[in-house]
Amino acid sequence: MIIKEDLEEAKERMRAWWDHEIIDRPVLSYNIPAGKNSIKALIASTPLCWDLAKDFDGIEAILDKLENNADGLIFGGECIPSYFPNYGPGIMASVLGVTPEFKANTMWFHKPTEVKDIISVLESVKLDANNEWYSRLKRITEYAAKRAVKGNYYISMTDLGGVLDILISFLGSTNIILAMKRNPGLIDTCRAIIMEKYLKVYDELQDIINKYVDGCNTWLNVWCPKRYYTMQCDFSVMLSPKWFKRFVLPDLIEQAEHMDYSIYHLDGPEQIKFIDDILPHVTGIQYVPGLKPGMPQDGADKWMPLYKKIQKAGKNIQMTILNPKRVPGVYKKLDPKGLFVYAVYMSKALANCYLPKFMGGDGGELVEKISNWVQSNNIGGRVTKEKLREYLAENNLEISKELESQILKEVRMKVKKGGKKGFKVKYL
After folding, report:
1. Which residue in 241, 320, 314, 238 sits closest to 275, CA to CA?
2. CATH number listed for the domain at residues 88-348
């Protein structure tokens, strides 16, 4: 069984977060895989797990992996334990007739269809027991939701995808762009057909989940007391702001109005140009810079103007910070109201070093102070634990041996890195 003793307090803070309020402190979500095999359980609960994509009906073995390895996996702050059934981004395409294929560590959806046939193909899809993927999604969701009750975790909605992203699976991007120019009414009809079936599947899957567990969740793992969805349109990077407003925004508005809350997955710097159109219609934004070489990651200073613009509009922000050492700085630079950061700390000692003060951590301050002390005193050679203890004694500080070792490691890395920029001290 997964254990989170402060579950109800976390849910209460999340209820406030969705309404852009703070109860007693800002929200923050983090995991610490502190158990022997808990990294396996952590991966099994995230979009990094492709087991279902490899074995469409292998839900039992996946939940075995999650539950049997969960010992020692810490769900800190507002990290609410949840399982995400991952069939890849856009499994709704398979409900509409696409046969998915797992390769290159992702799921691919492709069913080449003539433009003249696309409307009849979409209209012919029945959401009934004879629809293989419609039936599978309901069956897998129900099995997982039933089992989650005993396992003490929640179930997230599978990733249905974006409306135009689904349409690409049939027509391809070139044909869609040509049709937008030559026959926009055809694209409108396709969007309407997809949206009608899409919302029906969403409602039915969420109804199944709520038979067993409360609240709603998606691949973002941001628990919500009511219904929400993480909306997206990856295809929009190929569109101008004019065409985004014409062919994408109406679908986002319809989806958002169907839900109690909504988050838009702003995927890459190319989508920033749409932010002014999106903001009035959503509860929050999840911005992902992408992993291109040299691209500043979530929480970097480069993106602060974007984050502040989102906050100025009164909207929430969700971000995943790959380097947890950056977490305290993000909460200092941004308004903590409406801010939701997720991070993974690979040890309790690392978490104690870098969790913000409001979470009981040191916020990186002790590492910074000791690093400055080393540099200002021009301490040569390799500073030992004795030197560190000397500093702690002089400043009347007492810390655990585990935290002492972690801080020494962090200071060494920090000062060594600083030395490359011109500090006199190269090693600690």
Report:
1. 241
2. 3.20.20.210
